[in-house]
């Protein structure tokens, strides 16, 4: 029996695709290893959102080749797809695959193992490219399963390589979603997270929207929570929100991608909304979901961003009341419009702005967690990773911890109501009056 090991970089979609590839390898007689030692083959699933993502994947490739000179190494994912000419020349990898044809990666690895040949399988996406049918038969995560239902992007933000790495928007058919969610529920998972490269565009080619996918999931017995991945603000219609609100399983945590709170910068980024439109959306959501939370991503140091632009962005972030903000520096990507813009911001200035925005994000986080004290929320508990606490997540995706002092047995995959009593920098602590066993 051949043994394979996986190395994954990037977003939740990448991790989902890795789990699907693991399932394919297992179904075809491979043993999937938890550690790299003894592997006959290694699959590296790469990310190309930032230049550091490229660097990490290539460093892992070189390190793997040095450690396992006889192993078959497959480099797949967004980096080779977006940089096809460059990737095709990489000699450390035996297989160069990109983001297409992952359903046959096990066959390609077998070919290399048996015939010792090199395979480069890279091609452009066609405008009518179908959604690649990948399914996962098991998930290694604690209590939730991430399920990719959408791929590709049509937006072409001026800083982003994703349309080149993933092609145009395409969606998983509803019947396929139903089948996959049913299998996940039978496996004992109670929570699913619907994910995609541009998730809010789900179903447009079928005359559907994201609510159709969520409603199908809600019909599956055993699924008690439904979450959504990152969303584009301009696609969140009132009708979509009302349909989501009608689902008892829906968790009202909205990751609304912001990127900047400065209107001038958003326009230069080719984002399709203004700060005022973004604010209006959050107000509309709060009117529909009384206990919702907002998380987001914010970029600093975009070309031509002035100190005044940055200050405007930071003030906007502060005003929305995010529960969590991921802050990152602008990274130049060859082939994008932003890379050709004048007024590139010095790395030293990016770093200063990153620290300032991170401080703003921490203030938002603390204020939000403090607002939860005294509330009672249902918590889906996960595997214990601390001796002293059970931990799990509320519907708004706040981590909640309760003492294990009088309940040493696992609460994993069970839901209990917890009254929040205090908070720290990144979680809340509480207690429950429910009988735990």
Tell me what you see in this structure.
- By secondary structure, the protein is α/β, with parallel strands linked by helices.
- The protein is 34% helix and 21% strand.
- Helix 7 (174-186) runs parallel beside helix 8, helix 8 (210-218) packs parallel to helix 9 and helix 12 (307-320) packs parallel to helix 13.
- It has 13 helices and 18 strands.
- A hairpin with a 7-residue loop joins strand 14 (376-381) and strand 15 (389-393).
- Strands 2-1-3-4-5-6 form a six-stranded parallel β-sheet, with helices on both faces. It has a five-stranded mixed beta barrel with strand order 14-15-16-18-17.
- The mean pLDDT is 92.
Structural class, from helix and strand content?
Answer: alpha/beta
Q: Profile the largest sheet.
A: 6 strands, parallel
Helix content: 25-40%
If you average the pLDDT, what whole number results? 92
Radius of gyration: 22 Å
Overall geometry comes to globular
Please give the number of β-strands.
18
Tally the helices.
13
Q: Could you tell me how far the N terminus lies from the C terminus, measured between alpha carbons in angstroms?
A: 42 Å
Strand order of the main beta sheet, please?
2-1-3-4-5-6
Topology:
Elements: E1 3-8, H1 12-27, E2 31-32, E3 41-46, H2 51-67, E4 72-77, H3 78-82, H4 84-88, E5 95-98, H5 105-115, E6 119-120, E7 144-151, H6 162-166, E8 170-171, H7 174-186, E9 191-196, H8 210-218, E10 225-228, H9 238-245, E11 253-255, H10 263-269, H11 275-288, E12 293-300, H12 307-320, E13 324-329, H13 347-371, E14 376-381, E15 389-393, E16 399-403, E17 415-423, E18 428-431
Parallel strand pairs: 1-2, 1-3, 3-4, 4-5, 5-6, 7-9, 9-10, 11-12, 12-13, 16-18
Antiparallel strand pairs: 7-8, 14-15, 14-17, 15-16, 17-18
